[in-house]
């Protein structure tokens, strides 16, 4: 009985896993952009990173891009995952933790293994 | 969209859609040549002609004349022939009485109205359609005054139609109030008819027989009849103010003739003599007139100068430079100006390299040409006040003048006014080109290529009001060592040319145009250098690289090619300002490579601030090819103006009314690139450094490049990185300028 109940639950994780991996691949770009913003402004202000000298139009355009680009991605990501979670009837905390982790995975992989990006022709 | 025109188009497609040689027309309800051509082909088909053509030519005319010399209520013409008439009437704006194949009262009234508009009611009485009227129906000519047309011109057009339509080779001309190429030809035919020429002899060409006839028909006060009507028509067509279409040569007309003769520099007699006729009828006028000016592609040696002086010439037009990659050595030769000055010949300079088609002409090319012409003029020693004539040596159509020539001359005018202390801009070209460019206020005198009598830009256009030289014939002057071929020019007196010259400036060690055969090698070195400082060919080098912001924007190769596309302008600027072209190229290439979404958004925010009142208070940003703030551009240009480096108006970098126009101008690549040079000059001054020149030290170059980016700590890095780029460029430029 227990085995039969566990099997559908495991299957229920497959769709969120696939979707979040795909979202994570697409999310490399907004996340990369988020990093550029952080490195260029708040982290640079704290002395933790160096500013790119060519960019001299100030923070406003980047904030607009941040809201427009990254914000849109987050809204889409949350919308899709909210729907998926309802459909899958998976437990809320585990679902969001799992989805977030999977979505960050491609970015983390590129950060830890830069050669992956090079071999994919991204860098 | 006209419902009846649409029905005419449906008639064509329905009845003739499957006839070989008659293509279906677009059913858009708009009259155009395609519909008129189709109707012509339909007519040919109805007449039994098998080789269909867009042209209503002799075969169509003769067949129509033999089969249907008159189509009316009771002539029994086939219904489709009547439908073609009805369709043509609708397309011409008349009531065709439906498209039912019935020559009804409405069709008859429309044909009568058409005859009246064309001026042939008395020649073709009644309401029947006749062959020449049919031909007039199936084209795009208008028979009512159209916008901007003259009712006087229309009355002449109607008069010519009425008087000459029965001549075999005279076809109905438009009655739209406009003097055009066709109307000009009709006037010439009319003169030949009045001279008694047969239909075969009357060709519309201003040949020897016509000239001889006109010489025998001098008009003066008291003359009357058709000759006076033709003469006054020619005066009206040449837009002589206050002239009416008249059959009586009175004192008023004589006075107007005197004014015209004085304008075109003919003997002022007040009579309608041959030379006056000639000037009214063909762009050369009497091509045997002896001018006092000339232009030539040959060096004027002392012997030739003597021969020219003896022939009565006093002003010479000479070319500032040769055309690159050609063998013709037409430019002013070393020592030639001194010879001319010593012999008492004055000189006006002409700038012509390419320019034989519309494609060449555009704003950026105008800027390039102006910079080159200025440099050459200074090289030869032309003084302030000299007018340089920039050539348009092809038959530019009116729309090409609008789309290409005027922007080109705007570039010339902007650049000459910015970079010189007194050179003026003239134009060499056909009448219409000269008049239109002058009308825009871009030139101050015209050198008219009237020798090209067949140019559409000369036919049907009056002499430009600001003409200085009228090029009418190529002739040979002198003999032996003094022999020379020249273009004989009439001078109006508006421009006397120059009689004295500076020694001329010969600058050594200036940069030259890039040798494009080294393009790949230079690109390779630049790519390697940029990679060495962490700037890959595209985007960034890893996920944390801030250059990822440039992903999807410009690659290094693209940035390089855009920079190289402006090599001529950059070289000219560098030579003009006596600085290194690499100094200008570095920020351009770098900023193009580093351009990203943030820059695009910044542009949008600023544009929105000025146009939509955006709530975001951002009135300036770095923009354009080399990413320059309007404020910086204003400060840099102000400084250059104050230093006498360029001419212009001092602007206030604090005022948005000045910032916004400059920000917009920075979108123009030529303006943006020239501003880079001024920013460097201003930047050096801000740093307390000497003006960037040909021997600026490496360290000063680095500091000037850093200043381009600002005064922050990051700018130092910018300067270091760009200095490396500068060295790569210099590796290629230095050997070229020393070769």
UniProtKB/TrEMBL annotation, chain A:
<feature type="transmembrane region" description="Helical">
    <location>
        <begin position="95"/>
        <end position="113"/>
    </location>
</feature>
<feature type="transmembrane region" description="Helical">
    <location>
        <begin position="12"/>
        <end position="39"/>
    </location>
</feature>
<keyword id="KW-0812">Transmembrane</keyword>
<keyword id="KW-1133">Transmembrane helix</keyword>
<keyword id="KW-0472">Membrane</keyword>
<protein>
    <submittedName>
        <fullName>Uncharacterized protein</fullName>
    </submittedName>
</protein>
<feature type="transmembrane region" description="Helical">
    <location>
        <begin position="59"/>
        <end position="83"/>
    </location>
</feature>
Automatic annotation (TrEMBL), chain B:
<feature type="domain" description="Peptidoglycan binding-like">
    <location>
        <begin position="244"/>
        <end position="280"/>
    </location>
</feature>
<dbReference type="Pfam" id="PF01471">
    <property type="entry name" value="PG_binding_1"/>
</dbReference>
<dbReference type="InterPro" id="IPR002477">
    <property type="entry name" value="Peptidoglycan-bd-like"/>
</dbReference>
<dbReference type="Pfam" id="PF08924">
    <property type="entry name" value="Rv2525c_GlyHyd-like"/>
</dbReference>
<dbReference type="InterPro" id="IPR015020">
    <property type="entry name" value="Rv2525c-like_Glyco_Hydro-like"/>
</dbReference>
<feature type="domain" description="Rv2525c-like glycoside hydrolase-like">
    <location>
        <begin position="306"/>
        <end position="490"/>
    </location>
</feature>
<dbReference type="InterPro" id="IPR036365">
    <property type="entry name" value="PGBD-like_sf"/>
</dbReference>
<protein>
    <recommendedName>
        <fullName>DUF1906 domain-containing protein</fullName>
    </recommendedName>
</protein>
<dbReference type="InterPro" id="IPR017853">
    <property type="entry name" value="GH"/>
</dbReference>
């Amino acid at each position: 009985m227990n085995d039969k109940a566990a099997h559908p639950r495991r299957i229920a994780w497959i769709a969120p896993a696939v979707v979040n991996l795909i979202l994570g691949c697409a999310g490399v770009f907004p996340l990369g952009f988020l990093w550029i913003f952080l490195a260029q402004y708040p982290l640079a202000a704290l002395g933790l990173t160096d500013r790119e000298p060519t960019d001299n139009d100030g923070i406003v355009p980047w904030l607009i891009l941040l809201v427009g680009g990254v914000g849109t991605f987050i809204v889409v990501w949350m919308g899709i995952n909210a729907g998926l979670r309802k459909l899958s009837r998976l437990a809320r905390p585990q679902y969001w933790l799992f989805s977030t982790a999977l979505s960050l995975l491609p970015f983390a992989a590129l950060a830890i293994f830069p050669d992956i990006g090079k071999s994919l022709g991204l860098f | 969209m006209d419902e009846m025109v649409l029905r005419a188009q449906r008639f064509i497609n329905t009845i003739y859609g499957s006839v070989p040689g008659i293509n279906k027309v677009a059913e858009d309800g708009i009259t155009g040549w395609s519909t008129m051509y189709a109707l012509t082909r339909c007519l040919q088909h109805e007449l039994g002609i098998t080789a269909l053509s867009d042209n209503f030519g002799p075969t169509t005319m003769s067949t129509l004349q033999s089969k249907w010399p008159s189509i009316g209520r009771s002539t029994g013409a086939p219904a489709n022939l009547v439908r073609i008439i009805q369709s043509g009437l609708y397309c011409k704006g008349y009531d065709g009485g439906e498209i039912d194949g019935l020559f009804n009262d409405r069709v008859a009234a429309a044909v009568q109205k058409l005859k009246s508009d064309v001026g042939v009611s008395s020649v073709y009485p009644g309401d029947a359609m006749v062959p020449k009227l049919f031909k007039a129906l199936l084209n795009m000519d208008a028979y009512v005054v159209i916008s901007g047309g003259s009712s006087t011109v229309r009355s002449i057009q109607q008069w010519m139609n009425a008087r000459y339509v029965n001549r075999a080779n005279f076809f109905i001309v438009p009655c739209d109030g406009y003097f055009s190429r066709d109307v000009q030809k009709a006037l010439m035919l009319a003169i030949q008819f009045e001279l008694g020429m047969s239909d075969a002899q009357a060709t519309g060409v201003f040949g020897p027989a016509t000239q001889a006839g006109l010489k025998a028909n001098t008009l003066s006060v008291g003359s009357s009849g058709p000759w006076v009507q033709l003469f006054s028509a020619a005066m009206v067509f040449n837009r002589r103010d206050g002239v009416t279409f008249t059959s009586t040569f009175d004192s008023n007309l004589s006075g107007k003739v005197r004014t015209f003769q004085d304008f075109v520099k003919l003997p002022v007699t007040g009579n309608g003599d041959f030379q006056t006729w000639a000037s009214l009828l063909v762009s050369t006028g009497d091509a045997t007139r002896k001018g006092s000016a000339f232009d030539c592609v040959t060096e004027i040696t002392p012997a030739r100068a003597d021969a020219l002086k003896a022939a009565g010439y006093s002003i010479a037009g000479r070319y500032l430079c040769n055309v690159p990659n050609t063998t013709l050595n037409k430019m002013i030769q070393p020592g030639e100006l001194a010879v001319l000055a010593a012999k008492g010949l004055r000189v006006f300079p002409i700038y012509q390299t390419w320019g034989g088609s519309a494609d060449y002409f555009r704003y950026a090319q105008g800027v390039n040409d102006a910079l080159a012409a200025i440099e050459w003029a200074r090289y030869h020693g032309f003084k302030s006040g000299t007018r340089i004539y920039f050539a348009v040596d092809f038959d530019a159509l009116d729309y090409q003048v609008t789309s290409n020539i005027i922007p080109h001359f705007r570039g010339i005018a902007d650049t000459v006014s910015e970079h010189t202390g007194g050179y003026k801009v003239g134009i060499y070209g056909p009448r219409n080109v000269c008049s239109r460019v002058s009308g825009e206020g871009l030139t101050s005198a015209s050198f008219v290529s009237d020798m090209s009598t067949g140019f559409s830009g000369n036919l049907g256009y009056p002499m430009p009001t600001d003409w200085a030289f009228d090029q009418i014939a190529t002739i040979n002057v002198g003999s032996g060592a003094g022999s020379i071929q020249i273009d004989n020019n009439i001078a109006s007196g508006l421009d006397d040319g120059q009689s004295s010259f500076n020694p001329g400036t010969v600058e050594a060690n200036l940069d030259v145009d890039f040798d494009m055969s080294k393009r790949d090698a230079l690109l390779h070195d630049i790519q390697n250098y940029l990679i060495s400082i962490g700037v890959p060919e595209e985007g960034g080098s890893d996920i944390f690289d801030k250059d990822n912001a440039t992903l999807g924007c410009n690659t290094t190769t693209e940035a390089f090619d855009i920079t190289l596309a402006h090599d001529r302008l950059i070289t000219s600027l560098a030579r003009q300002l006596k600085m290194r072209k690499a100094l200008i190229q570095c920020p351009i290439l770098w900023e193009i490579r580093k351009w990203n979404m943030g820059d695009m958004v910044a542009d949008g925010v600023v544009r929105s601030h000025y146009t939509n009142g955006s709530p975001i208070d951002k009135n300036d940003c770095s923009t354009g090819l080399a990413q320059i703030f309007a404020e910086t551009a204003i400060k840099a240009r102000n400084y250059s103006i104050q230093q006498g480096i360029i001419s212009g108006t001092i602007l206030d970098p604090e005022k948005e009314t000045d910032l916004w126009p400059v920000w917009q101008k920075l979108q123009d690549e030529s303006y943006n690139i020239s501003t880079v040079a001024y920013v460097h000059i201003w930047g050096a001054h801000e740093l307390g450094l000497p003006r960037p020149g040909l021997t600026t030290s490496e360290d000063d170059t680095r500091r000037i490049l850093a200043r381009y980016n600002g005064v922050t700590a990051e700018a130092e890095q910018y300067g270091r990185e760009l200095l490396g780029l500068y060295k790569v460029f210099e590796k290629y430029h230095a050997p070229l300028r020393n070769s």
